[in-house]
Amino acid sequence: MLVAEPMLTLPNLVIIGAPKCATTSLHAYLSAHPDVFMSRQKELHFFLTTASWGTWSKGIEWYAAQFEEGADCRVRGEASPGYSIDPHVEAAVEHMARVLPTVKLVYMVREPISRIQSNYTEELYGGRIPPSITLEQILSAEAGDSGLLGHYHRAFVYTSKDNTQLCRYWERFPPAQMHVMAMESLAQDPVAALQRLFSFLGVADDFLPPNLDARLNEKSAKRLRTVNPTRLLVRVPQYQRISNLFPEPMKCLYRRVISRKVEHEQLVHISPESHAYLRSLLVPDLKRLVDATGVSFEEWQGVRE
């Protein structure tokens, strides 16, 4: 069992929630708060012990080193969507509860069908899903299928069952340590949403982030990577630090050079049959989420129709 040493500088905040739920934007907003330090590398994925891209093997000293710069801050945190990706949640919760038993957790949620579409798009643009595979093909596959279709069927659909994933955290962390935030509330009324969050964290809730108008990690252009040299570059030591030195216009040019335009709407189209299938799985989970949190999620029309 890995137990935190008393002298290590560890986080007291972890942002979780499925991919494409605005964790990147929230990480940036919190980083601007004078009482909050967020890890320079956004997605540490330290507690992922069952995923090849987890960093558990680097050890707790490595994890603590990511927060030494913020040792004097009231709140130190990180944001890793991987902590809510099925089937890695249970192991992540178990290890997190052992290492950070008193941590505050912010769980980001999003209307699940639009989240699935956005998650597919992210994987497609990142070159992890071949452009010959549409979202409809993935949804039409069986969850138990082996291979790429079955893998993404499980990853997209079951990761979107927010209440199911949250229950795993509620089993190990008391409700007082958890704050559920909908991406839609952050987008529609960011001031009110952040005020509630800052109050939960115990920091000044009248602070207004100067980058509040920024929407990070959004795809403004529908482009598909034709080559993906980044897969090799990320293996270079200090890649993240070096990448941050390049201005955003240069990064945009790089992304355009390695990509081409695609017919986005055709790729993310969901048939009536697949929509009915998703509702059969997601609506009962949503009802339990409403009962558990007391939040109505009225803006989630996609899963209600």
Strand content: 5-15%
Poorly predicted runs are none
**What is the helical fraction, as a range of percent?**
40-55%
Shape: globular
- In whole angstroms, how far apart are the ends? 46 Å
Figure out the total of helices. Answer: 15
Instruction: Enumerate the strands of the largest sheet in spatial order, edge to edge or round the barrel.
Output: 2-3-1-4-5
Provide the succession of SSEs: EHEHEHEHHHHEHHEHHHEHHH
Total number of beta strands = 7
Mean pLDDT: 87
The structural class is alpha/beta
Please outline the major beta sheet.
5 strands, parallel
- Specify Rg, calculated over alpha carbons: 19 Å
Give a written overview of the molecule:
This protein is of the alpha/beta class and 305 residues long. It has helices spanning 23-31, 60-65, 89-99, 112-125, 135-140, 148-159, 162-170, 183-188, 190-201, 230-233, 239-243, 248-257, 264-267, 272-293, 301-304; strands at 13-17, 36-38, 75-79, 104-109, 178-182, 223-225, 259-261. Strand 2, helix 2 (60-65) and strand 3 form a beta-alpha-beta unit. It starts with 12 loop residues before the first strand and ends with a helix. The mean pLDDT is 87.
What's the SSE blueprint?
Elements (H helix, E strand, L loop, with lengths): L12 E5 L5 H9 L4 E3 L21 H6 L9 E5 L9 H11 L4 E6 L2 H14 L9 H6 L7 H12 L2 H9 L7 E5 H6 L1 H12 L21 E3 L4 H4 L5 H5 L4 H10 L1 E3 L2 H4 L4 H22 L7 H4 L1
Parallel strand pairs: 1-3, 1-4, 2-3, 4-5
Antiparallel strand pairs: 6-7
